[in-house]
Specification:
Layout: E1 6-9, H1 15-22, E2 28-32, H2 43-53, E3 58-63, H3 68-77, E4 82-85, H4 91-101, E5 105-110, H5 115-121, E6 128-132, H6 151-161, E7 164-168, H7 176-180, E8 186-189, E9 194-195, E10 198-199, H8 201-216
Parallel strand pairs: 1-2, 1-8, 2-3, 3-4, 4-5, 5-6, 6-7, 7-8
Antiparallel strand pairs: 9-10
Helix pairs in contact: 1-2, 2-3
Domain N-(5'phosphoribosyl) anthranilate isomerase (PRAI): 8-209
Protein name: N-(5'-phosphoribosyl)anthranilate isomerase
Organism: Halobacillus campisalis
């Protein structure tokens, strides 16, 4: 059965960004807690924005190889619903994180040869996957897409594990309908909703309109 995709609007970095994202029908809002990245946000600021805006969406914190202490610090300011891991976290590290913070964990897997086998390694441990483009020297948020004809393979493996699977990388209002035609379970967007490093309400609305149109065609 085709259902409406999950939509994560990621990389929110100001009160205005949060307000624009929260006004949409997206299912998740994402925040980057990775220092020295252009979308890094301080957890105390995010806490302020969330308390002010009270978004209905679930909140996702994005990390790269975090320590338990780093996660606990962020969680002391922001009540996250999901931890998203972009680094080289091992199965044992993910289990340790889940035990410590008691939250579901999404693991990012970069599109490349062996990616499907990597998903099998995390079977029974990851609560979801984000499939992103592999760009040298970057963890994500590059605005580069991968070969979307492979999306159904990732979705199939995630379905076999009974977990979520979102597609990230280079999704824009202009090409989102092409991706939706591959029936992803979810999409994860940051650069595709920005203009001049700020969230663009027009782009958010344009993407959500395509999502709604896609879902309506199967209802």
């Amino acid at each position: 059965m085709i259902r409406e995709p999950l939509v994560k609007l990621c990389g929110n970095r100001s009160a205005s960004d949060v307000e624009k994202s929260a006004s949409s029908n997206a299912t998740h809002l994402g925040f980057i807690f990775v220092k020295k990245t252009k979308r890094y946000v301080r957890p105390e600021r995010v806490g302020q924005w969330v308390r002010r805006t009270k978004p209905k969406q679930k909140l996702v914190g994005v990390f790269v190889d975090p320590t338990i202490e780093q996660l606990e610090e962020v969680l002391s300011f922001v009540s996250l619903d999901v931890i998203q891991l972009h680094g080289s976290e091992t199965v044992s590290k993910i289990l340790q994180i889940k035990e410590a913070v008691g939250l579901p964990v999404w693991k990012v897997v970069h599109h490349r040869d062996g990616a499907l086998e990597q998903m099998e390694i995390y079977k029974g441990v990851a609560d979801g996957y984000v499939i992103d483009s592999k760009v040298e020297g970057a963890y994500g948020g590059t605005g580069v897409s991968f070969d979307w004809s492979t999306v159904e393979d990732y979705v199939r493996v995630a379905n076999e594990q009974n977990v979520s699977c979102l597609i990230a990388g280079g999704i824009t209002p202009e090409n989102v309908s092409q991706l939706l035609g591959q029936h992803p379970e979810g999409i994860d967007i940051s650069s595709g909703i920005e203009t001049n490093e700020q969230n663009d309400l027009y782009k958010i609305q344009a993407i959500m309109k395509e999502v709604d149109r896609h879902a309506a065609s199967f209802s």
